[in-house]
Amino acid sequence: MRAASSLLAEAAAPAMAPPRRRGAWRRLLHNRLSALGLGLVAFFSVVAAAGPHLIPYSPVTQDLERTLQPPGAPHLLGTDEFGRDVLSRAVHGARLTLAIGLAVISASFLIGFLAGVGAAVHGGVTDEVIMRVMDVLLALPGMLLAIVVVAALGPGTASLILAMTVYNVPQFARMSRAAALGVAHQSYIEAAGALGASPGRILFRHVVPNCLGPVLVFAMIRFSLTLLTAAGLSFLGLGIQPPTPEFGAMLHASRAYLWEAPHLMLVYGGAVSLMVLGLNAMAEGFRDVLDPASG
Amino acid sequence: MIRVVEFVARRLAATILVLLGLSLLVFLMLRLVPGDPIQVYLGVEVADPTLEQRLRQSLGLDRPVLVQYARYVGRIVTGDLGRSILTQRRVGEDLLPKALNTAQLATVSLMMAVTAGLSLGTLAAARRFTLWDHVGLLASLAGISLPVFWIGLLLQWTVSVQLGLLPSAGKGGLERLILPALTLSAPSVALISRVARASMLEVFRQDYIRVARAKGLAERRVMVRHILPNGILPILTVVGLQFGYMLAGAVLTETVFAWPGLGRLIVDAIKDRDYPVVQGAVLLVGAVFVLLNLTVDLIYVAVDPRLRRSAR
Question: What ipTM score was computed for the predicted complex, to two decimals?
Answer without folding.
Answer: 0.85
